[in-house]
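Issue: ligand-bound run for fe (ii) ion - logging full I/O for the record.

Environment: standard queue, default settings, no custom constraints.

Inputs:
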Amino acid sequence: MVYTDLPYDAETKAGFARALFDHLDRGTTDLAPEVLEIDARVYSDPALAVRERADLFGHVPIIAAHGSELPNRNDFLVAQLPNNEVVLVRQADGQVRGFVNTCRHRGARLVNEDSGSRRFFSCRYHGWSYAGDGSLRAIADEPTFGTVDKSCLGLKEVPVEERHGFVWVVDSAAGDRKIDIGEWLGAEFEASLSALEMDRYTCYVAGNFDVDINWKVLMDAFLDGYHIAYAHTGTVAPYFYNNLQTWQPMGRHGRMVSARKSIDKVRGQDPETAEIDRHITVAHFLMPNMSVLRQPDHLEVLNFVPAPGTATGTRMQMRILTREPAVTDEQKARWDKNWNILMAVLRDEDLVVNEGLQKAVSNQDIGPLYFGRNEIANQHFHRWMAAALDDPRHWG
Ligand code: FES
Ligand SMILES: [Fe+2]
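Outputs:
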């Protein structure tokens, strides 16, 4: 196994060790001040789903791809976001731009492949053709079409920024939306994320899963370290301590550190010097819908993207990023094995439980739901969501 050292300074690592050792000794975990009650309709209300798309996802940046998925000029990738399906295109100057994947003529889906490399995009319906910068190059049989201003009929563009190795998009072509990832992440959280050097990783595999589960149900499943011992008995439960983590809010986002059972090997040691790097998982939760999990030898990135036009449909995107590109059969076999484990955890356990939950919370007479003090990261998420929707001009 190729482990990389935890990319944090000695004081930060010692802080992780102190907190986790202390929780282990006392049978505790980080706690919120009180139990939080929420209305179960947040997972199914169609009116709320419409507001989330308009007031939240139309304004805040979300990850649409890793840069390594479109490394070269003219490379493109299609991403389904909450409001629009977009085509991301690597430009001649190396920047990535994003366009709504709809032909400006009569609305055909312009790009029908998931990814590839093209100098221009022709619509399969009537042959209009667009350059990689989104501009309309040619109208088929133009003299018969009539007079239109081609310079105004380029593809609708969404704001894009590439940072920390990822391509971020604000999912709106309204024209008045800005994108500023540094501002969005905040200095402290951004420092914690940039230590991971995600721009030096390569996306080994990206998978999409379309499920009938509200995106917040899925986000909740990853924010919660309380279910591992019960829902993951067939997979990872033997390897992780249940209900034992530290939660550090960092502005609107937050960082969670969990202990693997292998931490017992270093548990009696001085926290200042104990080598905990291989024994913990560091998760960064990015509001509103993303998680970057640092495993000791790779990254797992999850996005829970609300599907357009539905209150409960979600496209879950999962990526494995590796420090070195997988070239040999041996390397590929190793990451395929990791992927299959993730699949088993998700498909056979998390998704089964949460499909049931989605149906069950649609029962009419269920009363409120509760997040315990130990579900501190979930509480952060739900409080943040409520505040963000309350005043969409000031997220967080
Ligand atoms: S809809 Fe694209 S060319 Fe007609
Ligand atoms: Fe889970």
